[in-house]
Write a structure and sequence with these properties.
Helix content is about 35%, strand content about 20%. With about 400 residues, the protein is an alpha/beta fold. The longest helix is centred in the C-terminal third of the chain and has 25 residues.
């Protein structure tokens, strides 16, 4: 018997999957390209010890041409805000953490004369709060990152007074519905400080802190505090609204904190003192206009909208045939549609089209899932285009002003 985890945060699903090494767990999954939830696959995975290195930050430099100018865009893929607590508590100077790894990546980007950085927090469900503080400081310098409201009503500003800004050039953050908790703290701080653009879909909306109390039979989960941005806005329920919204291939409102029947509502407190960067409003306006034009001309964006249109047509389907031949016919039609919409995209880009569905699948299977995919990841490509538009339009250097 399987437990339905639809809409859960990734870290909650991981807790269910974890177990002793060399034991097995059976999962029933819905393939990424499935049109409806009736398409299932059962897989068995052997549990092993996951090294922190396997979930560490990765980087890649992407060369982008804008209006005849060449720009280097540094991509940082951060799957979680990780910290080796045991090594840190033991005062091991070589302890592993996301902020240390990202700092090293930024130092390398500077050596390579990278023009702008895109931090990819998609599917990052959070992690260590201290790491969210330090990582924010790498882009904004020392100062408050968030506010925490305790159960007694006390409000405490949180930040890192010792961190130094490691990156002063333009940057942006890429998020999606599964960006939660510490990811929302980081993205919200970058937005509030006007340090960079937030791109993607509205985030999960996890703005509370829980603790588990052991009972004689089971455990009791108690919500004991809430997160607030330096601007005073809660991240609870509403999450972070991007500055530029990318098309989603599915209805994000079906998951997230706001989709839960007993979620705590959004609220607001007074802002804390913080200093923002001066935005280049002209560059931002030009960037938004360029993106809105691409929505109707860019083959990758058109592909995403086509997939979403197909999803919307099928999501309210109330009948499902039990006739095996009809089901096979539906699957064949779905494969043909996927082939046609992909070939339409490739043809518009001047790329060679696939002769059949099998050759398309074989092409997709040849990609390393651990690599940063700057070929098939259309949302990532748009993030690169957007930060490229910004630096191509930028007319002023960033400077501080008090708020």
């Amino acid at each position: 018997m399987f437990e339905d985890v639809t809409g859960w945060r990734i870290d909650e699903v991981v807790q269910k999957v974890r177990g002793e090494p060399q034991t097995f767990v059976t999962l029933e999954i819905i393939p990424a390209d499935a049109e409806d939830n009736s398409v299932r696959k059962i897989i068995e995975i052997e549990r092993e010890i996951v090294e922190l290195e396997e979930r560490a930050a990765k980087s890649k430099i992407y060369s982008l041409n804008k209006n005849g100018s060449e720009y280097k865009i540094g991509i940082i893929d951060l799957p979680s805000f990780y910290l080796d607590f045991e090594a840190w508590q033991a005062r091991d100077p070589n302890y592993k953490s996301s902020s240390k790894d990202v700092k090293n990546i930024l130092d390398e980007f500077k050596k390579q004369s990278v023009d702008a950085v895109l931090v990819d927090l998609r599917n990052n469900s959070g992690g260590a709060l201290t790491e969210a503080n330090k990582l924010t400081g790498l882009f904004t310098s020392a100062g408050a990152t968030l506010q925490i409201k305790e159960s007694n009503g006390n409000i405490i500003p949180w930040g890192d007074a010792r961190v130094r800004q490691a990156w002063s050039k333009p940057m942006a953050v890429l998020v999606n519905r599964y960006s939660a908790s510490a990811s929302e703290i980081f993205a919200g701080a970058i937005q509030d400080y006007q340090r960079g653009l937030v791109i993607g879909q509205r985030t999960f909306g996890k703005g509370t802190v829980q603790r588990l109390d052991n009972l004689s039979e089971g455990q009791l989960k108690i919500t004991e505090s809430k997160f607030y941005r330096v601007s005073g806005d809660s991240t609870q329920s509403r999450g972070i609204d991007p500055d530029i919204v990318l098309p989603s291939t599915w209805d994000i409102e079906t998951v997230g904190e706001s989709s839960l029947p007993t979620h705590l509502p959004w609220d607001k407190i007074k802002p804390t003192r913080y200093r923002t960067f001066t935005e280049d409003s002209i560059a931002i306006e030009k960037t938004i206009v360029a993106f809105e034009e691409r929505l109707f001309t860019d083959p990758n964006l058109i592909y995403l909208k086509d997939v979403r249109s197909r999803y919307d047509q099928n999501k309210n389907k109330m009948e499902l045939s039990l006739n095996i031949e009809e089901r096979r016919s539906e699957q064949d039609e779905r494969k043909q549609w996927l082939l046609e919409v992909e070939n339409k995209r490739r043809s518009s880009l001047g790329m060679e089209i696939f002769k059949d569905y099998e050759s398309m699948n074989e092409f997709n299977d040849n990609f390393d899932p651990e690599d940063i995919d700057t070929i098939r990841d259309y949302s990532l490509l748009q993030g690169i285009e957007i930060i490229g538009d910004y630096i191509d339009s930028e007319s002023n250097f960033l400077s501080w002003r008090n708020t």
